[in-house]
Every structure is written in structure tokens, then in C-alpha cells.
Write a structure and sequence with these properties.
It contains 33 helices and 32 strands. It has 958 residues and is α+β, with helices and mostly antiparallel strands. The strands form 6 sheets. Strands 1, 25, 26, 27, 28, 29, 30, 31 and 32 form a 9-stranded mixed β-sheet that branches. A 7-stranded antiparallel β-sheet has the order 11-12-14-15-13-16-17, with helices on both faces. Strands 18, 19, 20, 21, 22, 23 and 24 form a 7-stranded mixed β-sheet that branches. A hairpin with a 2-residue loop joins β7 and β8. The radius of gyration is 33 Å and the shape is globular. It starts with a helix and ends in a 15-residue tail after the last helix.
């Protein structure tokens, strides 16, 4: 075989043998937080508003210790320790804080420096304003270095004071350019000019104060020779500036409030030009954002984003503003928009920076400390106006605007005339094809819908949620996944399409079900009743109304609903079962503990359904157990001020050894109230003993625990922040606290998986069908962080009396093959494994590791080239280091040429000439792996019996 010949020499020493204890994420584990968004609409694990709260909480926990160190460290021997402790608290909010600590007789001082950046002042002022009273009792929190008399700096043996420096000033618009000369430092100018500049820059800050320097100084230059004109001494500069009418600022907030700058531009008349290019006049408190945006730079945005901050602008058409007072109308509208956002989102959600007027659009600029709150408030404001459209855009030139509002009734050219929806008949057929009664397909249905809508939004063609057909399919997918967080997604999605739901009881039914599983029972009942009024001939709205009427004590009304349902669906199993339960006075949770299929339901009631626990977990979020909730707070209490329930999860801060964590229960209060008390006490104890606080990334970087997530299935996710970086990784624990070895998530992984093109995928499918066999069943992958690996299941046939499972997607990634093998085109590969004809591959069996491990092995191997930046080829081995499952001693694997296949099966030619190599995965015992390492791959393959490539958990080895 071609691959055998090309790889044999390379594998003689098995240089690329892979020792792996890594595998695909456990199907039961919650995926890592998905709040890491792109620049068009940034999403943060924590926004600056949250980060500020946590940083001040941490500072409050250590401030007494800081004061003690400052009081007792007379010899200044603990300065490094002092700064490190303070920095650890501040870094919870500000990624790279610059600060000074001091004492001025009455109070201690924390001085936060923006390091000469006007953009840096805004977050520091926000942070300063939110210092808690417990801190302010002992501390002054200042922004910017304060003016200091008698200050001096040293350069070696040279001592420099402000009186030693000459200054020439030159006015540049509303600011000044300074030229400085210091005779003491002239000997250093030739060899250490940068250090001299830094020294004089710092001295200027101390003379003027850092905020005044930012406000007034546009540039600072050095000279060795005196300039024309009379200089002044640097020590006299403050008074000289006052005499010329300049205002000096001690207060950063006061400066920012008075820092608006007006500007005029030459607008582009093309209505299709980029956003803001139509602007002819505006005002700004932070011109650098506008300048960067216009020239396509984003440095300031990048700095902000590290700290959970977003700067952007609201944009809206001005066509409706007419008349002689048009300019006044535009300004009044902008002021109303700003005021409404503050009222609804809170004044601490955003800092407004000014605005602009264009030929076609108006703009309101802001820095968001809590972006979702700002956009929600803006969307509500726009919905009450006559505008046809309004949106949001970050200060990045290369992204699209995000639609916040689109006027109802506006013609939409994307509406399909056949369906009356944004979905075409073909789209609806595609969605229907996902409905196979298996939850995995509902996951793919949901992903398809979200991708469809996201593309439309990014292209500016339509808004997200108003289309009735999209809403019906979306809620259908979410509700059938039968998991709390998907019910929440449906409940959050549906309201925008309500105005189009008249006469459609199906919409009211699905919305009511979602609300019910989110614990919003009164709303669920109201929508069920409204659905009856809208379309009384839809039977399942009566089923939903019957359950909720019974829950709220209306037994007669509940039985009446059952009667209506049976009239529409005579003899229906669900209605007959509900009738019995209403008559027996069963609670709502008991009424929901059913499957639609009578046979499946009987198995559930008899305790024979392996999904019973999953079903019970979703039901647990319907009603709150008051006693259980009180018990929870006896364990984790007292309830903190920053407690946030049901949005969608329940979260609150938790302090461990002075370190503030986010504790998230991935459920609502109802689900939380039903968690086992003994297990909760164990969780509390594990948190408080600090065992999870620190961890090392697999590549050696130190990291600190940031967030603890708890699932309804008692699995735990530990999210770590890598020190001094805006990077995170997450590990997963089982309910007993042991680590799930094969589950790991990193924010540094690519957001989008590598995929075949449609043409490439067609070629791969045809190759598998031709050489490995026809297949109808595919294990579709729901979560694809790097590559998308589906697994084709080729059933046994007369020629091949075994299953063949073949990966489809691994080859989308080009592996890091050594340069000396580049000519052989080994960069792309797919894998196959053979299983006995009696191997169980049904959905239930796939939850049992005894049957699932070959699938896991394929996925692990498929991802290793991505995660380890290496390659796989003929003769490579993988050592799992322990048995794959409890019923086998197989613990390793080797790659060989496809077994029992026609010539040509090992190589698929893609349309562009690329080649994808196919390899057989053969599981091994430890002694077989050792034999390979000693004698080589070819010797091992020759020694294995002919049928050894078929997975047999207890096969005879040699």
C-alpha cells in the first residue's frame, strides 16, 4: 500500500507515537460557557459592571491587611507583597492595573493611573465611583497621579526637580505642545534619550497632575539647545497655564464631563457607504474612537474588550425628521434615547460620549459597562418610535451593524410568497428532515435555525424573532430537547412573534410549555387560555390548559379541558391519563412525568427507561420547593446582595480565601430547591477548603478559579482564568468530585470548526459508499469546537459480516506533517473501525461506555492532530494507558491500511486534487503495543490474526 511504504521508515522509532489520556467531551457534561462572542456583538464571561463589583468585593476583603502592612512595614521591606495583593484584587476588573498606594495623614490612598490615556480614564472613573462604603471609610480612591510639590526623580546620581527643567509652550488648537530642556540630563541625552523622556514626562505629570496633563498636553518633546523665546520653569507651568486661561483638573470625573469636542466632516453622499461616513457634524468626548474607526484601527477597542467593555454607537434613520426645526428634533430625539437607556438600564450601565448627525442616519456614541442591558433598553425605546429600523455597531470598521428594531408591517423582500415566511418551502423541508424522534436531531434543527437567522441578521435582511414559522420551529426544537436551558431559550425567543401568532394555538401551546418548564406558571396558564380562545380546535392546547387549571386548583375546569380534548382526539392516551391524574389530585410534576408514546411511557412508569433521570431533572424546574430553597440557603447562606436567580441560571458570588468566585447553578430556583442537601454540603466544603482555587493549564501556565458551574445532573464545571491573560479554560468533574479526564474546553480554541466544502464532502461520502459500504445512519456531532466529526454507520452485509464505522470530517483539518513527508500528501485523513454484527448502536446503548468506547476512540483520534498539532498516519499508535471500558482490557490502538477492502479504499481524491487517506483503527492490548514499540508496526500487523481488526472486547491476544 502507498501509505505503508511512505510511513514505514518514519515509524521505525515510533517518534510520533501518541500517549493520550484525552478524549472527546463527555456527552453528559455541560459545554463550556459560550459567552465568548465575536466583535460584531461582543459577549463576555463577565462585563465590566460585574468585574467591578467583584474587584471591590475582593479589595474590601484585603484592605485591612493592606493597611496593617503599610502601618508596620517601617523599613519598606514588604512593598512587593503589598503591591501583589492589591493587584490581585484590582485585576478582577482591570487586566493590567497601574496604581500607587499611600497615606496622607487621615486616610490611605489608592491612586489609579490611566498611564497617560484619555480612553483609560473612563473605566477608572467608573471603577472609582463604585467603591463601596466599607472601603471609603478608610481609603481615598483617586484617578490619576495628583499634583505634588517638592517632587523629584533620580537618574543615577543625578537628582532632578521641576525647578531644574525649562519649558517652551506652543498652542496646538485647544491643547499645548511642550518642549523641555534639563541641563542636568544633557550628558544622558545621547545614550539614554528614552529614559530622559520618561523621567521628564513623569515629572510633568507630578507638576500638573496626570488628569491635567492628559487634558492639556498634546505632545512632549526634548531639546538639547535652548529654543527661541523665553522659557518658564516646569515648577511655574501650572500658574502660567492658569494665567493664559487654561483650566487644570484635579478631578477626572469633572474633566470627562466637560471634555466634549465638536467636529465637522465632509460626508459621503453614497447611502450604501459604511456607517458614519455620511456624518457631517458631531461631538465627542473620546475622539480616538472615531479616528480609529475611520481609519480601520481598533487598538482602543481591543484594550477595552480585555476588561469586558464595549464602545459603540446606536444608529437610526433620519428620514422621518422634517421641517425647519429638524436639527432640534434630531438632538431632542438623541437626548430622549440617552435618557431612556439610563432609566431602564441604570446610569451605571453606560457612559455616553456624544453623537453625530449624518445625511441619512443619526448616531449616539457610548461606552457600555453592561452591553446587554444597554441594548435591551435601546430596543425598547426604538420599539415605541416611528422609526423603520434601528441598530447597534461597535467601533470596529470591519463588522456589521446588529439590528435592534425593525418596524412591524414593513415589506420584507425575503418573505417567501409560497410560505409567507422567511423560511422557504425547501427550508421547511430541511427542518422537517431533522425530526426523527431523536433528541440529537432536534439539536441540529436548532443549530440550523440559529445559523439561518444569524446570517440574515448579519446581512441586515431581517430581525431575529418576529417570523411566526421560525418561532414555531424554534420552540419545537427547544421543547423537544427537554432540557431546562432550552426551554428558557424558547421562552426568551417567542414574545417577539406574538403579534403574528393570532389564530395559531400551536404558538400559544409551545410558548406555554416553555414558560411552564421555566417555572413561570401563571404566565403559562394565561397563554394556554389565550390559545384556547385563538384556536379552540387545536387539541393540545386543551391538554396544556387542563394541567395548569388543575395545578391552580380548578379541578372542574381541568376536567372540562380533558373533555374538549377527547372530543377532538377520541381515546387519546395522554388525555385519558391526564383525566385519571386530575381525579387523583396528582401534582403538576407528576402530570408531566410521561412520554407521548404509550409503550415508552409504560417503560418509564415501570422504572425501565434509562432516560428517567433526565426527564426528572427537566421537570424539577417547574415548581419551587420552599422548604428545599430554605435548606439551600442554610447551607450556602446568607443570601448575598448580588444574588441573581433564574436569568436563566441562578448565580451569586462566593468568597474563598479572599478570592471572589462566581457560583452558577445551571437551573432556576425551582431546580436548585430540589438538589440533594448532603451533596450540597459536600460541594460547599470542597469550595471552602480551597482545593480548586489554583490549577495549571496543560501547557504549564498558572490559572486561578473564576467560575464554578453546577448542573442539574450534579456535574461540576470549573472555569479558570489564566494569569495576566484574557484566556480561560474549563475542566469538568463528576458528582463525586472526580475529574472527567476526557473533557476540556479552552477559550483559545477556534470558535468555528474546520469543515469540508460541499464538493469535498460529496466526494468523501461517495468514497465511503463505494469502498466501505452504503450507510443510512450517521452519528451527527452536536458540539464541534475544532472539527466537525460525524460517524457513518455501515451495517453488516453478506460480504462484510460486521459494522464499519467511518469518520467524516477529520480530513477537513490539514495535519502538521513533517516537511520531509510533504510530497506524499499525508495531511488529511479519515478513520474506520470494525464492530461485530451484534454490537449495540442504539441511542440508549450509546450512553453506556461498554458500547460507546469505539465511537469515542474514533473521535479522540480524529481530534488529536488538532489538539496536539501533530499528525496521524500508518503505523502510529495511541496508548490510552488504561482499558477503554470495564468489559475489556484493550487499551491502545494502531492505524493500519483499511482491512478487507478493495484496492483504492485507502485514498480519496478531492475535486481540487487534494488527497484524503483512510486508515483502519485496530484496538490493542498493552503487550501488543509493547511488541510494536520493540519490533515495529509491520511486524505487529503481521503477527495479529486475520480477524483481529474487528473489535472484540475479550479477543485472544498473543
Amino acid at each position: 500500500m502507498k501509505t505503508t511504504d511512505q510511513c514505514r521508515k518514519w515509524n521505525e522509532t515510533d517518534e510520533f507515537q501518541i500517549l493520550s489520556d484525552v478524549s472527546e467531551p463527555n456527552p453528559s457534561a455541560e459545554s463550556a460557557p459560550a459567552e465568548n462572542g465575536g466583535p460584531a456583538l461582543p459577549r463576555f464571561e463577565k462585563n465590566f459592571r460585574q468585574r467591578t463589583e467583584e474587584a471591590w468585593a475582593a479589595f474590601a476583603g484585603i484592605e485591612a491587611e493592606l493597611r496593617r502592612i503599610m502601618d508596620t512595614d517601617k523599613m519598606r521591606e514588604r512593598g512587593k507583597e503589598l503591591m501583589e495583593k492589591c493587584a490581585a484584587a484590582l485585576e478582577l476588573a482591570i487586566s493590567s492595573p497601574a496604581f500607587e498606594l499611600g497615606f496622607q495623614g487621615e486616610k490611605y490612598e489608592l491612586i489609579l493611573s490611566p498611564e497617560g490615556s484619555r480612553a483609560g480614564l473612563f473605566p477608572l472613573v467608573y471603577f472609582q465611583r463604585h467603591a463601596p462604603e466599607v472601603v471609603l471609610e478608610h481609603w481615598n480612591i483617586l484617578v490619576g497621579r495628583q499634583p505634588s510639590k517638592g517632587f523629584y526623580l533620580r537618574a543615577g546620581e543625578i537628582q532632578v526637580k521641576a525647578e531644574d527643567v525649562q519649558v517652551w509652550t506652543e498652542q496646538r488648537e485647544d491643547r499645548l505642545s511642550l518642549t523641555l530642556r534639563c541641563e542636568k540630563l544633557l550628558p544622558l541625552m545621547e545614550t539614554e534619550e528614552d529614559n530622559v523622556w520618561w523621567l521628564l514626562y513623569t515629572l510633568t505629570d507630578q507638576v500638573l497632575g496626570e488628569v491635567s496633563a492628559i487634558a492639556l498636553i498634546s505632545s512632549l518633546n526634548l531639546t538639547e539647545q535652548p529654543k527661541e523665546g523665553d522659557p518658564i520653569l516646569l515648577s511655574d507651568l501650572p500658574q502660567a497655564l492658569r494665567d493664559k486661561g487654561y483650566q487644570l483638573w484635579d478631578d477626572a470625573q469633572g474633566y470627562l464631563d466637560n471634555s466634549y469636542i465638536g467636529y465637522e466632516l465632509e460626508p459621503e453622499e453614497d447611502p450604501e457607504a459604511d456607517w458614519r461616513l455620511d456624518v457631517y457634524a458631531g461631538s465627542a468626548r473620546l475622539p480616538v474612537l472615531i479616528n480609529d474607526y475611520m481609519i480601520g484601527e481598533s487598538n482602543t477597542m481591543d484594550d477595552y474588550q480585555k476588561d469586558g467593555i464595549t464602545a459603540g454607537f446606536l444608529c437610526y434613520p433620519l428620514a422621518g425628521f422634517q421641517g425647519e426645526d429638524r436639527a432640534a428634533q434630531i438632538l431632542e430625539f438623541r437626548d430622549s434615547l440617552q435618557q431612556t437607556v439610563w432609566e431602564h438600564a441604570g446610569e451605571d450601565a453606560a457612559a455616553f460620549l456624544g453623537g453625530a448627525t449624518g445625511l441619512y442616519y443619526g448616531y449616539l456614541d457610548f461606552i457600555a459597562w453592561d452591553l446587554p442591558a444597554v441594548l435591551d433598553a435601546a430596543g425598547e425605546f426604538f420599539a415605541e418610535t416611528d422609526l423603520t429600523w434601528a441598530g447597534f455597531h461597535v467601533f470596529r470598521r470591519d463588522v456589521s451593524a446588529v439590528s435592534l428594531w425593525e418596524q412591524e408591517g414593513e415589506p420584507n423582500t425575503d418573505t417567501d410568497p409560497e410560505t409567507g415566511s422567511l423560511l422557504s418551502a425547501q427550508d421547511i423541508e430541511t427542518l422537517g428532515a431533522f425530526d426523527e424522534g431523536v433528541s440529537g436531531y432536534f439539536g441540529k434543527m436548532l443549530q440550523w435555525l440559529e445559523d439561518f437567522v444569524e446570517r440574515g441578521v448579519q446581512e441586515g435582511r431581517f430581525t431575529r424573532r418576529q417570523d411566526l414559522q421560525i418561532a414555531l420551529w424554534y420552540s419545537f426544537a427547544c421543547n423537544n430537547l427537554d432540557v431546562y436551558r432550552y426551554y428558557y431559550k424558547a421562552a426568551h425567543w417567542m414574545p417577539d412573534s406574538e403579534k403574528n401568532a393570532g389564530g395559531c394555538a400551536m404558538w400559544y401551546y409551545r410558548y406555554s410549555v416553555a414558560l411552564m418548564y421555566c417555572g413561570r406558571l401563571e404566565e403559562a396558564r394565561d397563554y394556554a387560555e389565550r390559545g384556547i380562545r385563538e384556536e379552540p380546535d387545536y387539541p393540545w392546547i386543551w391538554l396544556q390548559a387542563g394541567k395548569l387549571r388543575s395545578h391552580f386548583g380548578d379541578r372542574a375546569g381541568a376536567l372540562d379541558a380533558v373533555s374538549h380534548g377527547l372530543a377532538l382526539e377520541p381515546g387519546d392516551y395522554e388525555f385519558l391519563t391526564l383525566k385519571k391524574e386530575i381525579e387523583a389530585g396528582e401534582p403538576l410534576e407528576r402530570m408531566e412525568y410521561h412520554w407521548i408514546n404509550p409503550d415508552a411511557d409504560r417503560a418509564l412508569q415501570q422504572g425501565l427507561d434509562e432516560d428517567a433521570d433526565d426527564k426528572q431533572r427537566s421537570i424539577s424546574c417547574i415548581t419551587v420547593n420552599a422548604e428545599g430553597l430554605e435548606r439551600f440557603w442554610r447551607i450556602f447562606g446568607p443570601k448575598p446582595e448580588k444574588y441573581v436567580p433564574n436569568a436563566p441560571f441562578t448565580r451569586f458570588p462566593c468568597t474563598v480565601n479572599g478570592h471572589v468566585l462566581d457560583l452558577i447553578f445551571q437551573m432556576n430556583e425551582a431546580g436548585m430547591s430540589k438538589l440533594n442537601a448532603d451533596w450540597l454540603k459536600q460541594l460547599r466544603d470542597r469550595l471552602q477548603d480551597g482545593r480548586w482555587l489554583e490549577r495549571t493549564h496543560p501547557d504549564g501556565r498558572a490559572a486561578n478559579l473564576d467560575t464554578v458551574s453546577v448542573g442539574l445532573d450534579y456535574h461540576i464545571g470549573l472555569l479558570y482564568k489564566i494569569a495576566e491573560e484574557e484566556a480561560y479554560f474549563q475542566i469538568f468533574l463528576r458528582p463525586d468530585g472526580s475529574e472527567v479526564e476526557d473533557a476540556f474546553w479552552s477559550s483559545e480554541a477556534s470558535d468555528q470548526p474546520e469543515l469540508y466544502t460541499e464538493e469535498e464532502l460529496a466526494a468523501i461520502e461517495q468514497h465511503i459508499q463505494k469502498y466501505f459500504g452504503a450507510f443510512e445512519n450517521v452519528f451527527h456531532e452536536l458540539v464541534s469546537p475544532d472539527i466537525h466529526v460525524d460517524i457513518c454507520v455501515v451495517p453488516p452485509s453478506e460480504e462484510k459480516y460486521y459494522y464499519t464505522l467511518v469518520t467524516m470530517g477529520m480530513g477537513a483539518h490539514r495535519m502538521n506533517v513533517p516537511e520531509e513527508l510533504a510530497e506524499y500528501k499525508l495531511e488529511r485523513a479519515e478513520l474506520a473501525i470494525a464492530l461485530p454484527a451484534d454490537w449495540k448502536l442504539d441511542e440508549a446503548s450509546m450512553k453506556d461506555e461498554r458500547w460507546y468506547w469505539p465511537v469515542r476512540l474514533l473521535k479522540v483520534l480524529a481530534r488529536l492532530p488538532v489538539s496536539a498539532d501533530t499528525w496521524l498516519g500508518w503505523g502510529h499508535t495511541m496508548n490510552h494507558q488504561k482499558p477503554f471500558a470495564e468489559n475489556t482490557e484493550l487499551c491502545a490502538a494502531i492505524l493500519a491500511a483499511p482491512q478487507n477492502n478493495a484496492d483504492g479504499s485507502d485514498l480519496c481524491l478531492l475535486p481540487d486534487g487534494s488527497e484524503v487517506n483512510f486508515y483502519q483503527v485496530i484496538p490493542l492490548y498493552q503487550r501488543e503495543l509493547a511488541y510494536k514499540l520493540e519490533h515495529g508496526a509491520e511486524a505487529l500487523l503481521e503477527k495479529l490474526e486475520a480477524g483481529s481488526f474487528i473489535v472484540t472486547p475479550d479477543r485472544q491476544g498473543f
